[in-house]
Sequence to fold (178 residues):
Amino acid sequence: MGTVKVYPPVKYFAAITFEPTAPVEKAKEWLATIFSEIDDISPCYDFDQFTSYYQEEMGTGLQKQIVSFKFLKPAELLPECKLATNEIESHFLSERGRRLNLDPGYVCAAKMILATTKDYDHRLYLHHGIFGDVHLRFRQGHFQPAEWTYPDYRQPHIILFFEQVRKNYLQQLKDFTL
Fold:
């Protein structure tokens, strides 16, 4: 029989996909009240080159940026974090629909997990209608995408960003006591 151990805290992040006039800075401020202060920010990138999934609702010219948060928190908070980010999205709705899309997740030593409301065969149900998706796996010294990993998360600069987040996480974990 295996021994049950306390799972270490994880490093949360949020991916922000937004239309050109979206109040991104206000959304970041709100995210900081939920997660903790932002400690790392990816460069913005052109999201339209990867998918047209959001264009009917959000239009074109979509950008995306990923932010990570300073304080480590329990992994089991992911469903509540997704519900909170859905609330932020709802707050900034336009007549057409969302102006920004917020996808929270976390990084730990072995993987990067995204929260989602959509069920698929590779996603595990967590709680409150939220699923966890193992999107990147850390193998042979680098994050590796899975066959279902979204195209933008396969890009070298995004993988490098998450590897830096993981490096920061591991350093923080050394100083963390359970």
Remarks:
- The beta strands are 11-18, 38-41, 45-46, 63-69, 100-107, 111-116, 123-127, 130-139, 142-145.
- The two ends are 23 Å apart (CA to CA).
- The chain has a mean pLDDT of 95.
- The chain has one domain: 11-173.
